[in-house]
Amino acid sequence: MLSALLSAAGGPTLAATVTAGSVQLTFTVDAPDLNVNGDAARWQAPPRLIGGRALLPLRETAALLGRPVQVGGAGQLGVGRVAVAPDGSASLAGVPQPAGTALILDGVPYLSARTLADALDANLSAADDTGRTLTLTALRDGGNPLAPQARFSTDKVVYAPGERVVYTEYAYDPDGADITSRKWAGRQDAFFQPGTYTVGLSVTNNRGLSSKPFARTITVQGAPLDSPLTYALKYAAPGDRFPDAQVLNYPSVAAVPVAGTSFPLIFSDSPEVPTQSGVLYQDTVSGPVRLLGYHLNGLGKPARLYVLARNIEDRAVEVRTLRQGETAPTRIEGLLGQVTLLDYFASTGGPTLTLAPGQAAAVYASPTLGVGSGANMMQDLTASGRVELTFLMLEDGLPPSAQVSQQLPYLQPDGKHVRGTFPGAVRHLRVNLTTLPARIVIGDGQLDPAIDGTDKLTGQPVRLSGNYGVLYDLEVNGAAGTAVALSPRGGLYRGAMNVQDGPLSQTIKLPRNGNAIKPQEPVLLWRAGSDRLNIDFIPASGSNLPISLVFYRAGKAGASGVMDGLKTYQP
Fold first, then answer.
1. Of the four listed, 88, 316, 440, 459, which is most buried by Cβ atoms within 10 Å?
2. Residue 3 has pLDDT above 50, yes or no
3. Closest residue by Cα to residue 460 from 293, 281, 299
4. CA 115 to chain centre
5. DSSP code of residue 120
6. Taking the alpha carbons of 401, 406, 412, 417 in that order, is the dihedral positive or negative?
7. Is 288 helix (H, G, I), strand (E, B) or coil?
8. In this structure, which long-range contacts are made by residues 31-38, counting pairs with CB atoms below 8 Å and at least 24 apart in sequence?
9. Is pLDDT at 36 greater than 80 in this prediction?
10. Distances from the Cα of 64 to the Cα of 88, 118, 565, angstroms
11. Distance (Å, whole) CA 353 – CA 495
12. Which helix (H) or strand (E) holds 4?
């Protein structure tokens, strides 16, 4: 086993760092090269021979030895028992040293190698007969016994370009305190260019103590195993961005409409920022309906957004909430749609209100909205009879009652945004994948037309560009072995989709962090295991359309069903 490890590492010197008991520097004065525990290195500021003394760059040498440099008052530097002042004077254990022991050369503090050895209880010896090549051997610093210890390993020390690096982190605290944060330096899941890379880790415990950095070196060489794109198709997690410069060149696949159950959408987004209490929108419905409201508080005082349901039958009517999602309150527009969708897809139902003839009750009430704060809500309802649904923005203190709503003004549209009732709020689409890669365009107004409706308060026809609130029920056939991603086409996008893949059902946050902005940086949605993949997609309020759903061939599966060469272990 040992011989195999040595062979895999390319010889007896393993690339994985082993902490030595001592650090040994072998160097020649006025020369840029040195050896650190047998490994070749180069000085940034080489040692100097001045006045018969071998002088070492203080900070750089301390770093090579793993010794901390203390910075005292007036810029004094301390290493071990020696202190060097900004004027170049030095003291050892408080005893002043002769002139020339320390010098400032080109802004770099230098210290006599002999004095540094004495300060660290180290050994300084000549490495050749000339006396110009010296070896400094110092015991490694013991460190703070209460500090945590950073540790990690990699599954290999030599990788092909694009090969996955498996990191196993095993940092610990000497007293068992919790490790609360980790800071990596140079870590990548894969390195795509040949070369030598150093990866470091430092950790902090719950007492605020930090470890010394711990590092390992890996080598990348040989024939590439994966490109950034093919690597992402194998390993990216749902919600991760990845590069694909060709995404806009892939052919579009026709999504064929098919028959299915649908219901209307009541959409309230104008005036988007009401400046007084009033009625935002109103319509009468019976049966299932989807509500989508998006408004900011411009009243100059705290307010709330409501949806009031009033029974206009001469019998009792039940109004049941089937699903609901909301984002409120928030001032961050990009959050509104994403959080609402994640809430909506996670919803499993809601309350049922029984309304007597003429009775009204709020089926939705936002939290209190501060000035300039907004609410985004989406709600699926079903009513057993005709009910009047009214969107209201009310300043705090005004109750959402039928009497109040009848006394308030109908607020005029702002001319920029849309309100209205739109039939057919569910689009059932089917796609058959043949040639890959391919993409489906959603929300462009051409390949995917905007939905038409009517503003019931004015009687004017309206068009809902972007189809916000429309549920796309997309069935993809021939999906097994493919990866699907979202590519933003109109700017910032933050949303969510629900995926049904055989027995698996999952809602995916898109992207997992931040925003999707660039078309050439798609966000992975899913890798399909079944031949039929069902995707529920609702365009997110506060985000930009169009978007493309891009389908790729993810890779070739082996006999076990796992793609050939796939590293699945991730501790």
1. 440
2. no
3. 281
4. 50
5. T
6. positive
7. strand
8. 36/64, 38/13
9. yes
10. 22, 17, 39
11. 30
12. helix 2-8
Nearest to 555 by CA among 528, 518, 533: 528
Helix H segments across 359-454? 402-407
Question: What does the angle CA 374 – CA 375 – CA 377 come to, to the nearest 5 degrees?
Answer: 160
Residue in the block written with tokens 């109750």: 399
Per DSSP, which regions of 232-277 are E strands? 256-257, 265-268
Q: How far apart are CA 6 and CA 310, in angstroms?
A: 79
Task: Report pLDDT for 565.
Answer: 67
Q: Tokens at residue 373, please?
A: 């704060």
φ/ψ (deg, to 5) at 125: -140, 155
The larger pLDDT score, comparing residue 2 to residue 362, is at 362
Neighbours of 426 (CB within 10 A): 18
Q: Is the pLDDT of residue 298 over 90?
A: yes
Q: Is pLDDT of 283 > 90? A: yes
Residue identified by tokens 């993809």 is 476
Q: Where are the beta strands (DSSP E) in 366-409?
A: 374-395
> Taking the CB of residue 151, how many other CB atoms lie within 10 A of it?
16
Phi, psi dihedral angles at 246 (to 5 degrees): -95, 5
- 484, 533 Cβ separation under 8 angstroms: yes
CB atoms within 10 A of CB 127: 15
Sign of torsion over alpha carbons 530, 536, 541, 544: positive
**CA dihedral of 368, 372, 376, 382, whole degrees rounded to 10:** 50
Q: Is the pLDDT of residue 457 over 80?
A: yes
Mind listing the pLDDT tens digit for each residue in 134-167?
A: 999 998 877 788 899 999 999 999 999 999 999 9
Tens digits of residue pLDDT in 502-529 = 999 999 999 998 889 999 999 999 999 9
Whole-angstrom Cα distance, residue 358 to residue 564? 66
Structure tokens at 363: 């089926």
Query: What is the Cα–Cα distance from 516 to 523, expressed in whole angstroms?
Result: 7
> The tokens of 474 are what?
């997309």
Residue pair 266/281 in contact by the 8 Å Cβ criterion: yes
Q: Are 355 and 310 in contact (CB under 8 A)?
A: yes
* 464, 468, 473, 476: CA torsion to nearest 10: 100
Helix ranges, 306-372 (H): 333-346
Q: Are strands 22-28 and 33-36 parallel, antiparallel or unpaired?
A: antiparallel
Name which of 551, 548, 556, 536 is nearest 478 in CA terms: 551
| Strand duo 482-488 + 523-527: pairing | antiparallel
Judging by DSSP bridges, how do beta strands 167-169 and 495-501 pair with one another?
unpaired
User: Rounded to whole angstroms, how far apart are CA atoms 66 and 213?
Assistant: 10
Q: Which pLDDT tens digit goes with each residue over 392-437? A: 999 999 999 999 999 999 999 999 999 999 999 999 999 999 999 9
Taking alpha carbons only, the member of 324, 408, 397, 308 closest to residue 359 is 308
Kind of pairing, strands 374-395 and 438-442? Answer: unpaired
Residue matched to tokens 């049922």: 352
How many of the other CB atoms lie within 10 Å of CB of 396?
Answer: 12
